[in-house]
Amino acid sequence: MGNPLDLRDRIVHRRVISKKRGSAPPSSRLVRSLWPPGLQNRGMSISLRWIEWGSDDYEQMLQLRDDVLRRPLGMILDRSKLQDEISCQLLTAWDGDKIVGTMILSDDRNGIARMRAVAVKQSSQGSGVGAMMVKEFERRAVELGFTQSFAHARVVALPFYFRLGYRAEGDAFEEVTIAHQKVRKLLEIS
User: Fold this and answer.
1) For each of the chain's 190 residues, which pLDDT tens digit applies?
2) Concatenated DSSP letters of 45-102
3) Nearest to 30, CA basis, from 51, 49, 52
4) Is the dihedral of CA 51, 146, 173, 81 positive or negative?
5) Most exposed: 5, 6, 18, 101, by fewest CB within 10 Å?
6) Taking a C-beta distance cutoff of 8 angstroms, is the pair 10, 141 a contact?
C-alpha cells in the first residue's frame, strides 16, 4: 500500500473534494439503490448509505447494533467506547426510511481494512442485504487503498463469509461471550 494516509486523513480528504464539487454531505449521499430479485420478492427496496458519526442516522445505527448484536446476549451497547468510530467509515442499509443493516470499515493500522459491527435486522437476514453491504465495503476499501480485509466473524455466521470469498484464519476464540473466527480476504483491485 506504500505510505498510506491514515484512514481519517483519507476520509477528510474525500469530504473536502466532495464539498468542492457541490455534492451533498456524505451523511446524506446515497451510495446506490439496489433491487435484487430476492429483495423485490420480499417487498424491499434497499439503499446503501455511508453516514456521519454523531448524525441522526448514526443514532439509528447504534440502536440496530444494540438490538441485533448486544441485547440477544443480555448486554447493552457501551456508548462510552464508541469514540474511535469518529475515524471510521460507517455503512448502513435502508429499506425506505427504516435502517436494516450496519457495518463499519476501519484501518487495523497494518494496512488491512477491518469489517466490524456487522448487523442485519432479523427480518432482513437471508435477503441479500448483508452480501450487498460486504460488496460495498470491499469497493470502498479498495478505493481507500486497502488490498485485504478481515473480520472477527461469529462462528454461526461463517457460511455467510465463506460464500463471499473469505477464508478462516487461526483458531476460534471467544469475543463478547460467544465463539468467533478471524476471516480474511484479498480484495480485487479493478
Assistant:
1) 343 334 434 333 333 333 333 334 444 445 544 444 444 435 678 999 999 999 999 999 999 999 999 999 988 888 888 999 999 999 999 999 999 999 999 998 888 999 999 999 999 999 999 999 999 999 999 999 999 999 999 999 999 999 999 999 999 999 989 999 999 999 987 7
2) -EEEEEE-TTSHHHHHHHHHHIIIIIGGGT----GGG-GGGGGSEEEEEEETTEEEEE
3) 49
4) negative
5) 6
6) no
